[in-house]
Amino acid sequence: MEIVICEDAAEIGRIAASKIIDLVRRKPTAAIGLATGSSPLGIYAELAHAVARGELDMSRAHGFALDEYVGIELEHPQSYYSVIHREVVERLSMDPARVHVPDGRAADLHSACEAYEEAIEQAGGVDLQIVGIGSNGHIGFNEPTSSFGSRTRVKALAPQTRADNARFFDSLDQVPTLCLTQGLGTIMDAREVVLVAQGEHKADAIAAAVEGPMAAVMPASVLQGHRYATVIIDEAAASKLQYTEYYRHAWNTKPERAVSAAV
Ligand code: F6R
Predict the structure, then answer these.
(1) DSSP H helical ranges for the chain
(2) Cα 260 from Cα 255, distance rounded (Å)
């Protein structure tokens, strides 16, 4: 994994967004895996600026959300359908028909999960998957002990995740208990994965995911086996890593960086 330690959330947003901008310029129909939550908001803000300045056209790109709550109304402001349409589709002028969110209202949730996997396949797979990380190490809603081979499926949210996400709802009781989430195997099929995290409360999970053993109890550690995964974090989230000096050295001396900076 490549580890990039940034000064602040704005720099995280800029570096992660530049990967997406490069990709979509090369491949206008690229499929982007979309995370919700606080962590990717800086990326979407950067992309929105690029679209507003006429430097980026996302209208032919595809989008696939990582997850959705089960049983929540589509119109609920915290359904991931609403969040993705508000934060991503509208701001980036994407084509709503090309942006997909798992159907947490389906009568047959298992078929909805299979249909989601098929939709990803039909789009040619995900080119770049954005992920955040839960304080318990989840990516998507693959809670600790999720199989590294898992596909899109129904999962029970961990108590820690419900407590962390209660800030988006009026009370803990309102946080759904079930979700549909891309599996770890689904995420690992993406051609590139970019994990973003900010804040001290993510430091333990980042240290375990990056430098701990690959283990199902730490779902994000699966990314150690991905051939092209980048972890872009702030100083606080990096504060429990052992090898920060090496990560900074590797980033500062990266040949491709020197090339793109020179262009
Ligand atoms: C959201 C998702 C989750 C979040 C994670 C971090 O689609 O899949 O894994 O990325 O819970 O959430 P924030 O960014 O709000 O701290």
Answers:
(1) 9-26, 41-52, 80-84, 109-122, 159-165, 184-188, 203-211, 244-252, 255-262
(2) 9
CB-based contacts of 167, cutoff 8 Å, min separation 6: none
The reported pTM is 0.96
| Confidence band for 256, pLDDT divided at 50, 70 and 90 | confident
Sign of torsion over alpha carbons 130, 132, 133, 134: negative
Q: Which of 62, 100, 127, 136 is catalytic?
A: 136
Report pLDDT digits (tens) over 128-177: 999 999 999 999 999 999 999 999 999 999 999 999 999 999 999 999 99
- Residue 18 CA to ligand 1 center (angstroms) comes to 21
Nearest atom in ligand 1 to 36's CA: 7
